[in-house]
């Protein structure tokens, strides 16, 4: 990588999960520093090299977004410095110019991110360069919503109550970063690397547009569980990558829908759990659940992945995921429960499949949801709760509109019989869990 050259002191705003100019706290702080601001984004090889799909829709989404930000910057005579590299190499090259005075970025609580940031902070501070972080990805940061004894909550309802009690004007205050963009450093003609140069191809999957519909939010409590209608906001990918501010979303929730706001608080909750209990990103939150003797059946795993289980609601969800990078939240619960309880397959395998295909994949929420379904997580469904995918279909897709959209052969001889009997599978799951959990 050719090191950039700068003739005057500057600071960096490092874009990560905050890919927007407006209401961006770290960007606002950088723009207020008194130095020209160089916006930086890294297509992180440490992450991208682990992706198995050259047409990964998230890479396309990120690439398109960076092209938009680059175009915006160039209209102001500036540039976003976009690299296909590692964060350490990119930031170190900027430090090597001798002109870097500080790096500003928003907090990221994933285990990899914490290790990455600790190493970069150490590198910068050894050179006398400051590393500043701000809370931007969540409404209240890990450590802010705690029990009276100072320990973290592991049950959602008391967490939610404390979240509301703790909420301050500062938590919700927007940062007018969009008003200070004249402080961006002058243009240096750095182009966004192409998808092909990074070893990727353009995906056909596209993300929904940003924007919150008041009418959808006001009907959310009544329509959120019906997968065949547009009853949810579909902004999860924009919260994941920060193309929408979480504070903007929360303000819409306060105004239009308490139920929808509660879903945002669940998002905060899982971020807090990940930060306080990082082991739960790979192992059962409740260790005794790691004693469950999961089955190992590649054929069953493959049928589930392809949406060929013989249970139409499960199959519709899996096919929607493969085709769009999205799955309705009610269907996610049914699909995950079927995987863990009916098939008795390890929740980690299901979580990894979602991680590979969800456009809105976020580690904390994905693991939290899967452990909820498996019964192994904090505040999870009890092990003896087993969703009946047939009754779930009758309750939430009574007219079969969702199923017919994604499983057109359903009801014909081409559609497979159920791969497992519900009554048998339910009892097998309960017996297996009970035996495993009774062990000393």
Keywords:
7% strand; globular; Rossmann fold; DNA Cyclobutane Dipyrimidine Photolyase, subunit A, domain 3; alpha/beta; Serine Threonine Protein Phosphatase 5, Tetratricopeptide repeat; 5 strands; 5-stranded parallel beta sheet; 440 residues
Explained architecture:
With 440 residues, the protein is α/β, with parallel strands linked by helices. The protein has 3 domains: 136 residues, Rossmann fold (3-Layer(aba) Sandwich), CATH 3.40.50.620; 104 residues, Alpha Horseshoe (Serine Threonine Protein Phosphatase 5, Tetratricopeptide repeat), CATH 1.25.40; 151 residues, Orthogonal Bundle (DNA Cyclobutane Dipyrimidine Photolyase, subunit A, domain 3). The protein is 46% helix and 7% strand. Strands 3-2-1-4-5 form a 5-stranded parallel sheet, sandwiched between helices. Strand 4, helix 5 and strand 5 form a beta-alpha-beta unit. Helix 14 packs across helix 15. The longest helix is centred in the first third of the chain and has 19 residues. The mean pLDDT is 96.
CATH class of the largest domain: Mainly Alpha
Question: What Rg do the Cα atoms give?
Answer: 23 Å
Mean pLDDT: 96
Q: What's the number of extended β-strand segments?
A: 5
Helix content: 40-55%
Intertermini distance: 56 Å
CATH superfamily of the largest domain: DNA Cyclobutane Dipyrimidine Photolyase, subunit A, domain 3
Strand content: 5-15%
Please trace the helix and strand order, writing H or E for each element.
EHEHHEHEHEHHHHHHHHHHHHHHH
Q: Determine the CATH topology of the largest domain.
A: DNA Cyclobutane Dipyrimidine Photolyase, subunit A, domain 3
* Class computed from helices, strands and strand pairing: alpha/beta
User: Helix count, per DSSP?
Assistant: 20
The shape, in one word, is: globular
**What is the number of independent domains?**
3
The neighbouring-strand order within the major sheet is 3-2-1-4-5
CATH architecture of the largest domain: Orthogonal Bundle
